[in-house]
Amino acid sequence: MKGLRKMICLVDGEHYLPVTKSALDLLDSLEHNEIVAVIFIGGTEKLRETSEEGISEKLERPVHFGEDHHKIPYELIGEMIEKYDADVVMDLSDEPIVDYSKRFKLATVALERGIPYEGPDFKFDPLTEHDVLKKPSLKILGTGKRIGKTAVSAYAARLIHNKKYNPCIVAMGRGGPEKPEIVRGDLIKITPEYLMEQSNKGVHAASDHWEDALMSRILTIGCRRCGGGMVGDVFITNMKRGAELANGVDADFVIMEGSGAAIPPIKTNRHIVLVGANQPIQNLEEYFGPFRIKLADLIIITMCEEPMSSPEKVKRIEKFIKDINPEAEIISTVFRPKPLEDIKDKNILFATTAPDSIKDVLVTYLEDNYGCKVVGTTSHLSNRPLLQKDIEKYIDEADIMLTELKAAAVDVATKDALNAGLGVVYCDNIPMVCGGEAEQKELQDAIINVVEKSIADFKANRE
């Protein structure tokens, strides 16, 4: 029958069984539904008949049970989805058998197998994944905003380029262009003056694809998106068109870059997931944090230092990831600034999106490694009014505006610096493996390993 949905129903013993049977009968009577499995997920309050055979008899359907009737059989539900090739999981249970936390776990079981999880007043759909790329690819996504996706994308692109794999990046952002925009970072010289010209034309010249192009000197494609769902889908985006453009450009490998916690709606061969150690631990261990983590072939934990995260918290995150995704490689990192030009013996005004709590660490690093004097800092690059006040406070003392290419870096920081006669130098952020530079090759090798697996998967799928 056209449109028929093969449905798995979750039931509990907190409902009187005749009531549950009525709900199952109603669902089965709808022309577009076929209940292929019923799974008992716990509870005994309303059960007069507690044997498995008796419950099945009362519901007039075979019912599947986990080993422990008092625990939700998540693994069994996953097995039944695959066994019956189900199209949807319908949850007919309720408190106290399921609470909010357990329902997110149930949703993750369904979503990671590509089917919706539904209930009386909710529905979680699997991620949109347009299968349009005709080149090997990987996806870089994150568990939140401001955890370093663009920095890692640019870093990965440079590594891939050095391995002669000729990458491009397709990025989506909340300030992206109406039509996907190609920036030839490999051909044009991206100067502060050039970015000001773009900004004056109405372009958001600090959008992620501009940062990628400047930091990596490769071809990038900028897209836009609006909205971000709990699972990671967006409300609107032109990223499908951006991915299609990537098929025709001079590149042999494609990096699809996420935005905030939103996930590129494009099917790729492999995934790198960024986890911010500065995020609330609940956001990683609950809700759809586990769903994102389970997608990963490589997990890069960022912000792994005081005061953003304690060593104990980092260890807890590492253990949690190993428990739910034992196949993924895990690398813990911190970010350190890298000016793109020489700033030795210069007085620096440093603009960043990093929190004020880490300011002293970054200032010390810049002064120790680049021979400059930081006369002022602002952590308000994403807050235009506060950024303006900080610039006014320090600009008379500085020779150089050193700024990340994010948020208001062009239309405020670059503009004000040029108007005041200062030089402008842009700053990259390098993910550094915890433990020192000697461990850096571990991250490089891990990224290239994902790239080579992506290429192998792509070739295998074409055969």
UniProtKB/TrEMBL annotation:
Annotated localization: Cytoplasm
Chemical reaction(s) catalysed: (2R)-2,3-bisphosphoglycerate + ATP + H(+) = cyclic (2R)-2,3-bisphosphoglycerate + ADP + phosphate
Superkingdom of origin: Archaea
UniProt entry tagged with the keyword Nucleotide-binding: yes
Main location: cytoplasm
GO cellular component, one term: cytoplasm
Record key words, sorted: ATP-binding, Cytoplasm, Ligase, Nucleotide-binding
Keyword Repeat tagged: no
Similarity comment: family membership: Belongs to the cyclic 2,3-diphosphoglycerate synthetase family.
HAMAP family from the UniProt entry: Cyc_PG_syn (MF_01908)
Stated role: Catalyzes the formation of cyclic 2,3-diphosphoglycerate (cDPG) by formation of an intramolecular phosphoanhydride bond at the expense of ATP.
Protein name: Cyclic 2,3-diphosphoglycerate synthetase
Species of provenance: Methanobacterium bryantii
Gene of this entry: cpgS
